[in-house]
Specification:
mainly alpha; single chain
């Protein structure tokens, strides 16, 4: 009855939230703002962090509005990746921008989450490892920063995003790997800027990405539970 009284935007944004979810979303967004206050040299970095958090949180809920937040986050992140010479991230962010309307269309026609068989799951994870090694070699040849980590963002993220668009639960397992690698990756870049080892990028942009990836890691772990339970089906209870 509540959904019938409100429009699509209200239902997508505000309906069917658990108290725990409201608290942790508020904490994750506040973390992005706090990082900006500590190192206020990148408004774009904060925008990327806030909208990246909203994108994946609403994705955890299985709601199409996540793709609207995703467009904003990906455009901001493309700039951050470019100034940081994170070429793997830059290439993937272009793909993310393109994938947002595709995801919107796919989720509009398939509201149930899916999962692979154990054998198929093993093949996908094995293929992701091989793709990571190849991406490492490619990024090293173009002198990208920390190519062994950036390759995870370059190829594993690609596979995870495809699975996310198709609503396969296994996407979150891959995102956990990506988020862990990105925390280390952006953390190293932040330390390099602070110590003067590099002048590429900015401290605020790098720290915002560390905070974002920490938030997304928590969300990915929680989303694994939500999707496996079926709570993300049918717009996560938001209605039409």
């Amino acid at each position: 009855m509540e959904n019938a009284r409100h429009g699509w935007w209200y239902n997508q944004l505000f309906t069917n939230w658990k108290k725990f979810e409201v608290i942790y979303v508020s904490v994750l967004i506040a973390l992005q703002v706090l990082v900006y206050l500590i190192a206020p040299d990148s408004v774009i970095g904060m925008v990327s962090g806030v909208f990246g958090t909203l994108c994946l949180v609403y994705g955890m809920k299985g709601r199409k509005i996540s793709f609207i937040f995703g467009v904003i986050q990906c455009l901001a992140m493309t700039y951050v990746a470019w100034i940081s010479h994170a070429y793997g991230s830059f290439a993937m962010d272009i793909f993310y921008v393109i994938s947002q309307p595709i995801g919107w269309f796919m989720w509009d026609h398939d509201e149930a989450t899916k999962r692979f068989s154990s054998r198929t799951r093993g093949l996908i994870f094995g293929g992701a490892f091989v793709a990571w090694a190849i991406g490492w070699w490619i990024l090293a040849t173009v002198h990208g920063q920390l190519p062994y980590f950036d390759s995870i963002n370059f190829v594993v993220s690609f596979i995870a995003q495809i699975l996310y668009i198709l609503k396969f639960e296994e996407n979150w397992s891959l995102w956990i790997v990506v988020n862990l690698a990105n925390i280390i990756y952006w953390g190293i870049l932040a330390v390099q800027v602070m110590t003067g080892a590099t002048h590429i990028g900015s401290l605020g942009a790098n720290l915002s990405q560390v905070a974002l990836q920490a938030a997304l890691l928590f969300n990915s772990v929680y989303a694994t539970k939500v999707w496996s339970s079926g709570e993300a089906d049918n717009e996560g209870g938001a209605g039409k």
